[in-house]
Amino acid sequence: MLSNELDVLRAEIEEMNLKILDLLNQRGEVVQKIGRIKEMQGVKRFDPVRERRLLDLIAENNDGPFETSTLQHIFKNIFKASLELQEEDNRKALLVSRKRKPDNTVINIKGELIGDGNPNFVMGPCAVESYEQVRLVAKAIKDQGLTLMRGGAFKPRTSPYDFQGLGFEGLKILRQVANEFNLAVVSEILNPNDLELALDYVDVIQIGARNMQNFDLLKAAGSVNKPVLLKRGLSATIEEFMYAAEYIIAKGNDQIILCERGIRTYERATRNTLDITAVPILKQETHLPVMVDVTHSTGRKDLLFPAAQAALAIGADGVMAEVHPDPAVALSDSAQQMDIPEFNDFMQKIKSTRLVHS
Ligand code: PEP
Ligand code: MN
């Protein structure tokens, strides 16, 4: 008799669970509708005043037997899950997201495939200073069997009194040397008005950390048919980084490489703090290739190799680092650039760790 009663009560519980389940999902659908309205109105999703009112309502209406605090705890979890549902919905909509495109985007730069599972290396001086300087680096890059050469012609300097770069003269040097060695040019463009003309000289447009949220530049880069290497802003969250890439893809250009280059924290041991887990997060959340700039993130030559190793081990598609024939006399970032023997040593160590097939 008693066991029969237990079965009946258990059946009642199961039925109630299904009703709760149904109600929770109905609630979820309403939450999604609210999320879309808030998105259109540009209103923040989390509203603490409203959440407090909902918790008070539970206290006012609770007849037991559960403690109010217990119920409020359960409802807080429901609120949290609802917020996540809204955020997930929003991410789903992004063109850069893996939800939107499950397959990796692979970018072909002069036959070099970025994002195909084999690591790539973008090497070269911080700034273009002369034909001879670029030529020496280009030769070293070629000797290592690499294809992608970086070099800044337009330099975003903290101080207006520091070397600002050679501008178009610098781009011409890069192109000339790259043609000589059959390399591809990666170079930063600062001004949307320079973009059109720069297309004659560069193979990849770099958008630097300081310009990650220069929306006019992002839109302009989105409107051309050239790969873009977008660097993470100095204090940008991963979400802001993804939205910056979204500006580019939304204009039609899906050839985007994301580049983690360290973020600003209280830590002073390194120039910036390399956010290494940003790599797998970006790989999971987006379909775009992800690189790590080990020079600007660490600012320390002794950390270039371990940081590169970590980057490749955690899934980065490539590594960027600065190389200068004579770093001591470099016009920018003199302390952190490798000289050519150091660069050869760096590549040798990378190859011998078998992270790269030599
Ligand atoms: C650069 O790569 O030349 C550069 C200036 O880096 P960032 O924009 O990451 O500071
Ligand atoms: Mn630099």
What does this structure look like?
With 358 residues, the protein is of the alpha/beta class. It has two domains: 2-93, Chorismate mutase (Chorismate Mutase Domain, subunit A); 107-352, TIM Barrel (Alpha-Beta Barrel), CATH 3.20.20.70. The chain is built from twelve helices and ten strands. The strands form two sheets. It has an eight-stranded parallel β-barrel, surrounded by six helices. The chain has a two-stranded antiparallel ribbon with strand order 1-2. Helix 4 (131-143) packs parallel to helix 5 (168-181). The longest helix has 40 residues, at 2-41. It is elongated, with a radius of gyration of 26 Å. It starts with a helix and ends in a 6-residue tail after the last helix. 37% of the residues are buried. Manganese (II) ion is lined by residues 126, 296, 322, 332-333.
Per CATH, the superfamily of the largest domain is Aldolase class I
The CATH architecture category of the largest domain equals Alpha-Beta Barrel
- The span between the termini is 77 Å
- CATH fold name of the largest domain: TIM Barrel
Helix content: 40-55%
How would you characterize the largest beta sheet? 8 strands, parallel, barrel
Number of strands: 10
User: In sequence order, what are the helices and strands, one letter per element?
Assistant: HHHEEEHEHEHEHEHEHEHHEH
Task: Give the strand content.
Answer: 5-15%
Structural class: alpha/beta
Radius of gyration: 26 Å
What is the top-level CATH class of the largest domain?
A: Alpha Beta
Instruction: Identify the bound ligands.
Output: phosphoenolpyruvate, manganese (II) ion
Low-confidence stretches: none
Shape: elongated
Sheet with most strands: strand arrangement? 3-4-5-6-7-8-9-10
What do the pLDDT scores average to?
95
Number of H- or I-type helical stretches: 12
Number of domains: 2
